[in-house]
Amino acid sequence: MTRQSETAPAIREVMLECRDLTRVYREGPRDVTVLDGLELRVRAGERVAVVGSSGSGKTTLLNLLGGLDRPTRGEVRIAGESLLSLGEAALGRFRNRHIGFVYQFHHLLSEFTALENAALPLIVRGQRKKAAEALARELLDKVGMQERADHKPGELSGGERQRVAIARALVTDPSLVLMDEPTGNLDQATAASILALMDGLAVTAACAFVIVTHDPALAAHQDRVLRLDGGRLAEQARHA
Ligand SMILES: Nc1ncnc2c1ncn2[C@@H]1O[C@H](COP(=O)(O)OP(=O)(O)OP(=O)(O)O)[C@@H](O)[C@H]1O
């Protein structure tokens, strides 16, 4: 007799969990509740798209998931660790260790080359420059930036800078990648190669992805599509 574990894929660990996540902004005399008791669970290797109208709170949510902002109420746990329990320095180390960011403002360092920018998270982590740059070069190859690895951000197009940011986000082999319109500036062929790279990482490295997008094709490519509305997430589609 075949055991269950030999036939069914193992249920993977929860990599990201939000409970009762609430963010209220104070605007003069009144409070604006943007996220209101939001719940979310993303497993290792799962890719989730978050869609929603402008102003629905997608950026607010990404900032809370990445520990760039603190919730008014509720909590975010990543790889079993509650972000609220971490002080600023520990949070910085935790981010470097577990989270890859691809946000719309790439914040590449202008005086460094594409290669140096992509290697930076590993250098910050204490890895030697040569080893860090070898890994960064591999990632730049995968995003089609091998020819321009020695150029500085000012000498790159918007889409090229975006690809360097993607390489930088993935170079640390993160548990969770948070992306805001990751393929927005890219042509179809380049976007397709980035999606293939993400698919590969979800499978081989069990990386979890949360991808904010207005692009229906990018959303439809993910395992689940969640819609942010009224401060909470509701499942719009499930493809897995
Ligand atoms: N620091 C802040 N102080 C007060 N209100 C804020 C602040 N940041 C965001 N908001 C408000 O919170 C709401 C959600 O903003 P957010 O940027 O998260 O939306 P979004 O879904 O990412 O929008 P878009 O798709 O247009 O980028 C908006 O009404 C916005 O004006």
Summarize the structure.
This protein has 240 residues and is of the alpha/beta class. It is 35% helix and 28% strand. The longest helix has 17 residues, at 188-204.
Would you write up a description of this structure?
With 240 residues, the protein is an alpha/beta fold. The chain has a domain at 45-70 and 99-238: Rossmann fold, CATH 3.40.50.300. The chain has helices at residues 4-7, 58-65, 88-98, 114-124, 129-142, 158-170, 188-204, 216-220, and strands at 14-27, 30-43, 47-51, 73-78, 81-82, 99-102, 176-180, 208-212, 224-229, 232-238. The strands form 2 sheets. Strands 6-7-8-3-9-10 form a 6-stranded mixed β-sheet. A 4-stranded antiparallel β-sheet has the order 2-1-4-5, with helices on one face. Helix 4 (114-124) crosses helix 5, helix 4 runs parallel beside helix 6 and helix 5 (129-142) packs across helix 6. The longest helix is centred in the last third of the chain and has 17 residues, at 188-204. It starts with a helix and ends with a strand. It binds adenosine-5'-triphosphate. Adenosine-5'-triphosphate is lined by residues 25, 27, 32, 34, 52, 54-60.
What amount of the residues lies in strands? Answer: 25-35%
CATH superfamily of the domain at 45-70 and 99-238: P-loop containing nucleotide triphosphate hydrolases
Give the helix level as a range of percent.
25-40%
Bound molecules: adenosine-5'-triphosphate
* Terminal CA distance: 27 Å
Mean pLDDT: 91
Succession of helices and strands: HEEEHEEHEHHHEHEHEE
> What shape does the CA trace take?
globular
Radius of gyration: 18 Å
| Spatial order of strands in the largest sheet | 6-7-8-3-9-10
Low-confidence region ranges: 1-7
User: What's the architecture of the domain at 45-70 and 99-238, going by CATH?
Assistant: 3-Layer(aba) Sandwich
Number of helices: 8
Strand element count: 10
Structural class: alpha/beta
Indicate the CATH topology of the domain at 45-70 and 99-238.
Answer: Rossmann fold
What is the class of the domain at 45-70 and 99-238 in the CATH system? Alpha Beta
Major sheet attributes: 6 strands, mixed
